Predict the structure.
Amino acid sequence: MYQKFGISNQVIELANKAEQSVQEQFKKIDQLCEINSLKVLNAFQKYHVSDMHFNSTTGYGYSDIGRDTIEKIFAEVLQTEDSLVRGQFISGTHALTVALFAFLRPNDIFLSISGKPYDTLDEVIGIVDNPSSLKSYGVKYEQIDMINNDFDYKKIEERVAKNDIKLIEIQRSRGYSLRESITLDKIEKVIQAIRKVNQSVIIMVDNCYGEMVNLIEPSQIGVDVIVGSLIKNLGGGIAPNGAYIAGKKELVQLAAERLTAPGLGKEVGPTLGINKSILQGLYFAPHVVASSLKTAIFASKLLEDLGYEANPTYHQERTDVVQTITFGDRDKLIRFCQGIQMGSPIDSDAIPEPWDMPGYTDQVIMAAGAFTQGSSIELSCDAPIRKPYMAFLQGGLTYEYGKLGVMKATQRLIEGY
Ligand SMILES: *Cc1c(COP(=O)(O)O)cnc(C)c1O
């Protein structure tokens, strides 16, 4: 069977060895999965989910009890006052954009304390010129870079003590940057430092790829509002699209009035048949996130055994589902990504190549043989084509498929040399 799939004995042996070395890590993930499942199940029962919530609305979408219940359940699972969970959000970038435009006004200052935010926000903020950016509305942007994979606590405290900043953004996952993803311990520590000198600034976390990776969410350690995509962790590979904004009630309200219109807010928004998928996706999310984590840990060990630098290492604490592997070579990076595509259920005969993608500055290669277009909670691998030629691997709806995909990619990688 493995031979049919084009996997050699050498790769099977490497995989067996790697898998055996990570059993302790896998056990911890099983425990995490059980607790997150318990959270979800409790939330479903608390809000009495029933057949009727799978129904749908069209047009304005008034009185969509399924949608309203979904938003209560997300708030319960994420431990926030309220949430906005909508298919009208095109992506995580769109939800982050809606949040930023909802909370910021002309002359307000927006401060990022985790370095430059995710690449697709460059034009949203105005770091790259765009006539519709926040900058074009007179919103000012400032940034404090991280040092040695930690916040610059002193600089942050000094800056926020002036009490002129409206919103602070923290990006939990690394995006395409070289820094590591940020653990919740560090986020908690920086929030305490901020709150010592400033009680009013809005603290927002870009929570993409981070949901259900730990026992708690950033919203449980003092973050005011969190944002994420439903074609990542919380969609469980089942939600067909959408994103969420969850947090303080008044912030969720502001976001709703920006997504729809002032005066309409959360009351409108047809669900067009996706309520059941969103609920079922959340139900699967703890297990799908666990499978993605196991896939990442397996890949980390396997590629490390082959001599590549993997971050996090297989035994390191995780805060998101992203695994980076540094190839240091353009060709190896491309071959590995192509191998992930070859190990996918969809479009496995397509060979991805680097391309200019909207919203990204460098060329990007993206391997995603996914059921849902662009879904990166499904096994996927992408990389900007720049030094040090680092691949960003994430997802895996089941560990078995994740493992097979990584084995296929490893095969293609070593066949080239
Ligand atoms: C995926 C991601 C986003 C949003 O990306 P979309 O492709 O627009 O959903 C934003 N920030 C981070 C850190 C991400 O990983």
Observations:
- The two ends are 24 Å apart (CA to CA).
- Residues 91-93, 118, 120, 171, 173, 175, 206, 208-209, 229 surround pyridoxal-5'-phosphate (CB under 6 Å).
- The longest strand covers residues 82-86.
